[in-house]
Amino acid sequence: MNPDALGYMAAGAALGLGAGLTPGPLLTLVLTQTFSHGPKEGAKVAFTPLLTDIPILCLSLLAMSWIKTHPSVMGIISIAGAIVVTLFGYDCFKTRAIILPEMNIKPGSFKKGLLTNYMNPHVYIFWATVGAPSTLLASDSGMLAPVLFLSGFFVCLIGAKITVAYLAGRFRELLSSRTYLIIMRVLGLALFAFALFLLRDGLRFLNLIN
């Protein structure tokens, strides 16, 4: 298998894990649904990015197809993506133990997950500055690379949230333990490494480095 394709798969996996485990609106909803109605309802929320993110990705790719013919614009977007991923990594480092909610909300997990994700501006920022540009860049390494990048991202994003739902249902205290914090620090380092990768590409598009 092409080493570049494996690299993109690893990058997608790191981004997916970071997004899946970092506290935010969707993870909070996963937890509240899990505690109110069980891990199955939390898992329903975890699957909603498959419906919300793919249309956003497609629109972003259409825009990127034109932008890709303008290297300077691609350079600026890649650098912006590096900044966004660096902030994601920083969020991993400043993450504290998850505060587990005690809310009791009604079922309708899938619909609530869709609305939560569509209303989250970070989803649009991610696909416009990181997800879609990385997918297009991966296509330069063959058709397998973007497939692996997106597969790594979605499998780890959804898998991480399902795992959180399961752990919240079975081992509630683990999400507030040191183990969770160590995992987040490691993910932060992985995201910093990917940010450097995006920064390098941005500088290359701008002809500032070889």
UniProtKB/TrEMBL annotation:
Per the record's keyword annotation, is Transmembrane helix included, yes or no? yes
Top-level taxonomic group: Bacteria
InterPro entries, alphabetized: LeuE-type
Q: Which GO terms describe its biological process?
A: amino acid transport
One Pfam match, by short name? LysE
According to its UniProt record, where is this protein located? Cell membrane
Cellular component, GO annotation: plasma membrane
Membrane topology according to the record: Multi-pass membrane protein
Q: Which residues cross the membrane?
A: 6-31, 43-67, 73-93, 114-132, 144-168, 180-199
- Keyword set, alphabetical order: Cell membrane, Membrane, Transmembrane, Transmembrane helix
Q: Does the keyword RNA-binding apply?
A: no
Protein's name according to its UniProt entry: Threonine/homoserine/homoserine lactone efflux protein
Say which species the protein is native to.
Answer: Maridesulfovibrio ferrireducens
